[in-house]
Every structure is written in C-alpha cells, then in structure tokens.
Amino acid sequence: MTNTQVAEITIQAKEQREKSKPIEVLIKASLKELGKALPAHLNAERLVRIALTTLRQNPKLAECNPMSILGALFQSAQLGLEPNVEGQAYINPYMNSKKIVDENGKVKWIKVPEAQFQIGYKGYIELFYRHNAAEYLDTHAVHENDKFEYEYGTNSYLHHSPVFKNRGEVIAYYAVAKIKEGGCVFKVMDKDACIEHGKTHSKCFDKETQSFDKNSSWYKFPDAMCKKTVIIQLAKLLPKSVELQKAIAMDNTTKSKLDIDMFNVKDETNWNDEQIIEVERSVA
Q1: Mean pLDDT of 198-220
Q2: Distance of CA 240 to the CA centre of its chain
Q3: Residues 95, 283: contact at Cβ < 8 Å?
Q4: Considering the chain, what is the average pLDDT of its residues?
Q5: Which of 17, 136, 158, 163 has the most other CB atoms within 10 Å of its CB?
Q6: What share of the chain has pLDDT > 90, as a percent?
Q7: What is the Cα–Cα distance from 79 to 89, expressed in whole angstroms?
Q8: In this predicted structure, what is the pLDDT of residue 13?
Q9: SS (H, E, C) the chain
Q10: Which pLDDT belongs to residue 25?
Q11: Mean pLDDT (whole number) for 260-271
Q12: Are 67 and 257 in contact (CB under 8 A)?
C-alpha cells in the first residue's frame, strides 16, 4: 500500500468520524430517556455502546437522519432487543421517499437517507418465549438432499432428517412451535416464496436493479431473513402477547419522533415508490 493510499484511507476515516459525531452526541444525550424505555434486563449504557458500534460498522448510517436512528434505537429498547447483536434486531439505512413543498408551492417527492428498525428471526424467537403459553419454537432450512416430509390437515405432521454430507442447495424453510396444552403448529415455505416476500416487503430491494441493497439484512443474511419470514407466517397461527403484536407492527418501520411507547408513533416509511416523480437523490 502506497503512502497516497494510506493518506486517502486516513482522510476517509476522519470524514466518517466527523459525520458520525453529531449522531453519537445525540445518542449519548438520550441516555436518560432510553433508560425509561428499557425493560429490566437491558442496560441503557450497553445499548448506547451497541448503537455507536453499529454506526462505525455501517458508514451508510452516518448519512441518515439522526432522529430516525434514534427512533430505531428507541423501538429496539422498548422491545428489549439488542440491535445488531446475535441477529435479534437491526438498524438499516435505506432511501425513504418524502413529499416536500418547494419555494414555488409545488409538491415534489425526493429520496432521503433514513434508518429503519428491523427485527431479526432470533428477536421473534426471544419475544415468543416471553409469552406465558410458549413452550418451544424452532426454525430450520431444508436442503435438497435432506429427508423431508410434511402434510397439513387433520393428521398434520412434519419430519425432517438432515443428511451429514452433500446436503445440496436450500429449497425451503420451516418454523415449528409448541404451545402449553395446545399441541404443535408448523409452517413451511419454499425458498422462492421467502425471497419474493422479502422483495415485496423490504424497502432495501431495488426494483430497477432487481437486487437487495448491499447494506441490507436481506443481502447480508438471506437465510436468517427467510427464517424470520416463515416465523412471522407461523405467528399468525399462534396466541400473541401484547408485546409480540406490537413487535410485528413496529417491524420494518421508520420513525423520527420519540415516545415512551414507540408503538404510538406513526411509521414514516413510504411504501408507494411508484408515485415518486422527483429524481432520486443517492446517498453519497
């Protein structure tokens, strides 16, 4: 590596620190309020450290509206999930569509970088076990050479015997849950259906390039996101705690206003990109 290259990297790192600094100050200043939103098992200082680490690991977040980052952090805090730790939850950057009125009174759409809160499949498992009726929940990927059979109906069953070698490509995912005194319930989805669900419900999927953003969870952890998808479908068949119902409603949301109960804050994600008429502004 040349001296010029080293100098360029040093400059980039310095610029990144300068961009992140206002957000870091905002997060640290919110420590007291974060503490009010946290359940007993989470520590505010630890959550702030995790958030700052997340900012350093994903430079795109430094470009986002700082309040949207804080909104995602507050949602994570309220649910008692740690962002970017063991797949419980994520704070992801994406381009959100905003309606503005220019100096001539004309309504326009622009694209602005914001942070979105997203729950991981391990986060959903964690929330499931907090229900007093929960006994067991698990999810697995099925490979083409595994022994796998299932049937829905009055005599429903699911048998999965993974082979040890040469399992082949992943072809499906399933989640199975056991409820106290309520039997066993499962849901199976093929891989294509899971990916299609992600394309439809993720703001990180670019319809022009037909690909997920490289900073998104769908790009980095497709297996984990497919498992999450099948768990969410299974959850429709299970008794839900108030906490789990709120989690489902808060998943994949963008919020730049704060409340002690983030469930009450309106989602600012614009899901109607087809209506955008202004030229998109890319994140630098």
Answers
A1: 83
A2: 20
A3: yes
A4: 82
A5: 158
A6: 34
A7: 10
A8: 38
A9: CCHHHHHHHHHHHHHHHHHHHHHHHHHHHCHHHHHHHCCCCCCHHHHHHHHHHHHHHCHHHHHCCHHHHHHHHHHHHHHCCCECCCCCEEEEEEEEEEEEECCCCCEEEEEEEEEEEEECHHHHHHHHHCCCCEEEEEEEEEECCCEEEEECCCCCEEEEECCCCCCCCEEEEEEEEEECCCEEEEEEEEHHHHHHHHHHHCCCEECCCCEECCCCHHHHCHHHHHHHHHHHHHHCCCCCCHHHHHHHHHCCECCCCCCCCHHHCCCCCCCCHHHCCCCCCCCC
A10: 80
A11: 88
A12: yes
pLDDT at 20: 53
CA angle 113, 38, 66 (to 5 degrees): 20
What pTM value is reported for the model? 0.79
What tokens were used for 198? 């992600």
pLDDT tens for 64-91 read 998 999 899 989 988 989 888 788 999 9
In 30-40, which positions are buried (b, 16+ CB within 10 angstroms) versus exposed (e)? Answer: beeebeebbee
Q: How far is CA 15 from CA 18, 28, 206, 256, in A?
A: 5, 20, 28, 24
CA distances from 99 to 96, 115, 195, 282 (A): 10, 17, 30, 16
User: What does the domain layout of the chain look like in residue ranges?
Assistant: 1-120+252-284, 132-239
pLDDT in tens, 1-22: 454 443 443 334 344 444 556 7
Rg (CA), the chain: 21
